[in-house]
Amino acid sequence: MILTRYIRQPRYLYLAAIVAIAIIAGGAGSVARAETFASFLKGVEREALTRGITKATLNQAFRGLTPDPNMDRLTKRQPELVKPIGGYIERRANGGMLKTGRRKLKGVSRTMKAIERTYGVDPYVVVAIWGMETGYGGGIGTSDVFRSLATLGWKRYRGDFFIGELLDALTILQQEGITRKQMVGSWAGAMGQTQFIPSSFLKYAVDFDKDGKRNLWKSRADALASTANYLSQKGWQAGQPWGVPVTLPTGYKRNVETLGWKQWKVRGVKPADGSRFPTKGTATLFFPAGAEGPAFLITPNYEVIRDYNSSDAYSLSAGLLANRLRGRKRFVTKWPTDKTLNKAQRMKVQELLVRRGHSVPNRTGRILKGVRLAIRDFQHSKGLVADGYPDRELLRQLSR
Ligand code: CA
Q1: What pLDDT, on a 0 to 100 scale, did the predictor assign at position 347?
Q2: What residues are neighbours of ligand 1 (ion), with CB under 5 Å?
Q3: How does the average pLDDT of the chain come out, rounded?
Q4: Does residue 15 carry a pLDDT above 70?
Q5: What is the mean pLDDT of residues 362-373?
Q6: How far apart are CA 335 and CA 197, in angstroms?
Q7: Ligand 1 mean position to 221 CA, how many Å?
Q8: Does 21 score more than 70 pLDDT?
Q9: Smaller CB count within 10 Å for the chain: N or C?
Q10: Which residues of 202-223 are buried (b: 16+ CB within 10 A; e: fewer)?
Q11: Ligand 1 center to residue 191 CA distance, Å?
């Protein structure tokens, strides 16, 4: 779960107010500038105590805690967001990831069957996410979760989001019978083999191996089942694929729309990976690299994967890797090498769409389904190919 899926949660807003008031009361003229790391921690401690966190837990979590000096550099990185999508997907859905995944499947086949029975989620997608997040448990991160979250919270990275995560991490430390030393994670506080942030851990983590602890670091069964539970709670529909790469008939009008699988078949749209369309349900035509690139039919399950990580590069990689792991043929295609828009440009697209009266579900640069539909409608109104894809040409048209 990378940062792009984080959403500001209203329940933490009042926390920021508490901390801010504490700082102002401490005599500071400017809120953020005057706050030392120590006074930030004091504010968090006061809030934690009201939530039933004990002094012993706080001592354990905050003893000797210093801010992470690397954090500014780390928060400025944007790995998969500006590179062409094709190379990223090819690397992750094939090659070493696939080879290692095939080997790892053998060790988790019983867990996968139990997960499918319990949660109705495609277990290959779960294993693919396991691969994408930590290389199948190989790279779970070594950062002190409390140090990471406290630094991000102190710096107000993403507003007050990480203050809430820090409080949830304290709850986990107190409830789950683990030590601070065991609570390691990514630089941004994502924990365990499938990288749960603390709020997701509290909501979705499960003790699947029944040893009395939700241990996403050491227990593969717990980590995989927790991911399955997450996908299930987010609305995974059993019996539906996440999507299917497709070939379109010659001359097909490449417009984004949603139809039943049967209607797609009638229109001559065919699976490009040797699979078959389901008989029930609907799917939406999707061009992850624009109308010149490959086409997919995606289902609501694709949006569920995107909830885990909001990038299309990630979600398509996970989906295609899952298909390869289940034994499906390699999906061979040519991806356009043109660079996608960067975050600032995507935000500009959203701003311009809003200015033209289109309904846009977020203004953060994330091109989720609703944004693609708004793009499609704009393209449609201009007589352009309505592929729902934000590229330079779209930005140019919108800027006119
Ligand atoms: Ca367990």
Answers
A1: 92
A2: 207, 209, 211, 213, 215, 219, 222
A3: 89
A4: no
A5: 85
A6: 33
A7: 7
A8: no
A9: C
A10: bebbbbbbeeebbbbbbbbbbb
A11: 15
Dihedral in degrees, nearest 10, Cα atoms 263, 266, 267, 271 = 90
| Amino acid letter, residue 236 | W
Nearest by Cα to 105 from 138, 140, 139, 136: 136
| pLDDT over 90 percentage in the chain | 70
Tokens coding 139: 């790279």
Mean pLDDT of 332-353: 86
Q: Is the pLDDT of residue 145 over 80?
A: yes
DSSP code per residue over 320-367: HHHHHHTTPPP-------PPPP-HHHHHHHHHHHHHTT---S-SSS--
- Cα(346) to ligand 1 centroid in Å equals 42
Give distance in angstroms: CA of 11 to centre of ligand 1. 29
Fold (CATH) for 10-75+140-233: Helicase, Ruva Protein; domain 3 (1.10.8)
Distance 226 CA to ligand 1 centre (A): 10
Residue 212 Cα to ligand 1 middle (Å): 6
Residue 216 CA, ligand 1 centroid: distance in Å = 8
Q: b vs e for 314-351, b when ≥16 Cβ sit within 10 Å of the residue's Cβ?
A: bbbbbbbbbbbbeebeebebebbeeebbeeebbbbbbe
The structural domains of the chain, with segments of one domain joined by +, span 10-75+140-233, 79-139+238-336, 343-398
Domain 79-139+238-336 sits in CATH at: 1.10.530.10
Ligand 1 geometric centre to CA of 60 (Å)? 23
Determine contact, residues 68/192, Cβ cutoff 8 Å: no
Cα of 202 from ligand 1 centre, angstroms: 14
- Report how far ligand 1's centroid is from the alpha carbon of 205 (Å): 10
The strand pairing partners of 243, in sequence order, are 298
**Ligand 1 centroid, distance to 217 Cα (angstroms):** 10
Tell how far the Cα of 359 is from the centroid of ligand 1, in angstroms: 44
Confidence at 170, pLDDT banded by 50, 70, 90: very high
Helices vs strands, H then E, count in the chain: 18, 7
206 Cα–ligand 1 center, Å: 7
- The pTM for the full model equals 0.86
| Tens-digit pLDDT profile for residues 238-297 | 999 999 999 999 999 889 999 999 999 999 999 999 899 999 999 999 999 999 899 999
